[in-house]
Design a protein that fits this description.
Layout (H helix, E strand, L loop, with lengths): L1 E5 L3 H13 L4 E5 L11 H6 L18 E3 L3 E5 L4 E4 L4 E3 L2 E4 L3 E3 L11 E2 L3 H11 L4 E5 L3 H12 L3 E6 L11 H13 L2 E5 L3 E5 L2 E4 L4 E3 L2 E4 L3 E3 L15 E2 L11 E3 L4 E4 L6 E3 L3 H15 L13 E6 L2 E6 L9 E5 L4 E7 L2 E8 L5 H9 L6 H9 L5 H4 L5
Parallel strand pairs: 1-2, 1-7, 2-3, 7-19, 9-16, 10-11, 10-16, 11-12, 18-20
Antiparallel strand pairs: 4-5, 5-6, 8-17, 13-14, 14-15, 20-21, 22-23, 23-26, 24-25, 25-26
This protein binds flavin-adenine dinucleotide.
């Protein structure tokens, strides 16, 4: 059986390992323009020089792969089961995984050509090079990638400003109170934060913001989100609006074609709505399920997360899952003795959580959200009081 995997990142590596685990004799070909495989979330460390490429690589996974092709898919014929390659050739498959990820969004503004994205290892090195000739930098976008970029530039000695279009940083991973704590900490790190504005125009060494202010910035990094790399599928017949649509086995509708990771869209664990995955954790899990199913399994993907994050920013540990702001009809409980702790309930169901500072016991709440567990009044009360433990579920008659 010939398995072809398009993309050389985590969804691809996870799928290759699953296929190899199930079928030691499978032929697995990976097609990727990037050298497989490295931890994308660690590229800010390439930027600030604290890690080298070999430190962030997990090249061990290459052992699962029979053949690596340094190329890019540019067309798909699902009737003939062939992928057209940018270099001109064609590649046949029995099973195909599309794990082409996503690419950074660039705002359509005058001077946009000067904006530097942070998506690949090459981007990180490019930003590092640009930083060596600059004293000031502007980072457009105050999400996780923008903040990591800003901190890396700060570490390189630049004066950094983050401009975020929304009212607060790190939406939707944090609520406004949590974001305010991060903003305060960033200021202590010497990073200026401007919210409720974006960049309107870029000219040599300067950026004009939507509010009219002119900012000195010979280096402008952009991190306003990413969009699935699916444009090359035009004409293939696959539904790829906002990410390739897949069924519960992660099949993309056509015989033998699967999709996983940032390139795919699937059901949100919390809301049940179709979302495009843009999280490492989703890509790991989807890659594993797709790989198992390509090798003959029948695994069902239980859902993906819009918010699922465990990280540390400026020394503040934080975990958020599901959602961080309550919708009408939902109840939010916020408090915490040693940090900030927020739970969001829809009746007996926990829909979201955010722990900052003290993240102990976060795992149990993530599991409750994932499993859509209905909590008894007593369990709910204990969750609010931060005394809920696994024993509360093991006890007969806990309700
Ligand atoms: C700086 C940064 C920090 C991040 N931090 C976090 C974090 O803390 N937590 C978190 O959950 N997520 C984080 N992410 C997001 C996370 O990295 C992605 O969700 C994850 O990498 C998606 O994996 P993937 O395998 O689906 O796709 P990608 O990692 O996007 O890889 C796609 C691969 O496909 C290749 N490709 C593209 N087009 C083609 C084509 N036509 N043919 C063949 N190959 C192609 C690309 O070159 C690439 O190798 C971060 C991302 C960045 C950039």
């Amino acid at each position: 059986m010939h398995h072809v995997i398009l993309g050389g990142s985590i969804a691809a590596a996870s799928a290759a390992a699953a296929i190899r685990g199930k079928d030691p004799r499978a032929e697995i070909t990976v097609v990727s323009p990037e050298t497989p495989f490295y931890f994308r979330p660690l590229i800010p460390m390439l930027m600030d020089g604290s890690r080298r490429m070999e430190d962030i690589s997990y090249a061990g996974q290459v052992k699962d792969v029979t053949r690596l092709i340094s190329d890019r898919a540019e067309g798909l014929d699902t009737k003939r089961c062939v992928v057209a390659l940018e270099s001109g050739g064609e590649l046949g498959y029995d099973r195909l995984l599309i794990a082409t990820g996503s690419a950074p969004l660039i705002p359509e503004i005058p001077g946009a050509g000067a904006l530097l994205p942070l998506r690949t290892a090459a981007d990180a090195l490019e930003l590092r090079k640009a930083a060596s000739n600059a004293k000031d930098a502007l980072v457009v976008g105050g999400g996780l990638v923008g903040i990591k970029a800003a901190l890396a530039l700060g570490k390189l000695g630049l004066r950094v400003t983050i401009v975020e279009k929304l009212a607060h940083l790190l939406h939707p991973r944090l609520d406004s109170r949590g974001a305010a704590a991060v903003e305060e900490r960033l200021r202590l790190y010497g990073i200026r934060v401007i919210t409720g504005e974006t960049v309107a125009e870029v000219s040599t060494g300067k950026a004009r913001l939507s509010g009219g202010a002119l900012i000195e910035a010979p280096l402008i990094a952009v991190a306003i989100g990413s969009a699935p790399c699916t444009g090359w599928l035009r004409g293939s017949g696959l539904k790829a609006d906002g990410g390739i649509c897949v069924d519960e086995n992660l099949m993309a509708g056509a015989g033998g074609v699967f999709a996983a990771g940032d390139a795919a869209s699937f059901t949100d664990t919390v809301t049940g709505l179709k979302i495009n995955s843009a999280l490492w954790t989703n890509a790991v899990e989807m890659g594993r399920i797709a790989g198992e199913n390509m090798a003959g399994g029948k695994l069902v993907c239980p859902g993906i997360w819009r918010v699922l994050n465990a990280t540390e920013i400026c020394g503040i540990p934080m975990v958020s899952a599901g959602k961080t702001e309550a919708d009408p009809g939902e109840e939010a409980y916020a408090g915490g003795h040693f940090g900030y702790r927020k739970l969001i309930f829809d009746g007996p169901r926990l829909k979201g959580m955010l722990f900052m500072g003290d993240v102990k016991g976060a795992g149990i709440y993530t599991n409750i959200i994932r499993n859509r567990t209905e909590l008894s009044e007593r369990q709910k009360q204990k969750a609010i009081e931060a005394t809920l433990g696994y024993a509360d579920f093991a006890m007969a008659g806990a309700r």
